[in-house]
């Protein structure tokens, strides 16, 4: 699961729904895996039969929540490791700077 999918699932989890464009490249993937469900916009009649119309808004499912929280642990690990690398490089740069200014 990519970071953009995680962000959309997180937004849907926090706010209850998320707007996803039809042009979003991972839309087929998240719909096929039942991570989100499309919200009905209303009903119209086609040849006398009711037909549901849908908007660009989606709501998260239980499968989406499980996938999001499963990847969330991995994401937290990556963020912590990148912060550690950044702090180490910052400390190294500060050490070199103080050594050169003496």
State the main characteristics.
single chain; alpha+beta; Arc Repressor Mutant, subunit A; 3 helices
How are the SSEs placed, and which strands pair?
Elements: H1 3-15, E1 18-19, H2 27-32, E2 36-46, E3 49-60, H3 62-100
Antiparallel strand pairs: 1-3, 2-3
In short:
Keywords: Membrane, Transmembrane, Transmembrane helix. The chain has 102 residues and is α+β, with helices and mostly antiparallel strands.
Structural account:
The chain starts with a helix and ends with a helix. It has a single domain (3-100), classed as Arc Repressor Mutant, subunit A (Orthogonal Bundle). It has helices at 3-15, 27-32, 62-100; strands spanning 18-19, 36-46, 49-60. By secondary structure, the protein is of the alpha+beta class. The relative contact order is 0.15. The mean pLDDT is 87. The chain crosses the membrane at residues 79-100.
The general outline is: elongated
Number of domains: 1
List SSEs in N-to-C order: HEHEEH
Report the major sheet: 3 strands, antiparallel
What is the name of the CATH class?
Mainly Alpha
């Amino acid at each position: 699961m990519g970071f953009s999918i995680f962000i959309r699932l997180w937004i849907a989890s926090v706010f209850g729904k998320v707007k996803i464009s039809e042009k979003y490249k991972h839309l087929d993937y998240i719909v096929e895996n039942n991570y989100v469900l499309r919200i009905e916009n209303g009903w119209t009649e086609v040849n006398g039969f009711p037909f549901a119309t849908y908007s660009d808004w989606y709501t998260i499912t239980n499968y989406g929540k499980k996938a999001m929280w499963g990847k969330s642990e991995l994401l937290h690990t990556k963020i912590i490791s990148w912060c550690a690398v950044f702090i180490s490089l910052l400390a190294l740069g500060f050490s070199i700077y103080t050594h050169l200014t003496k």
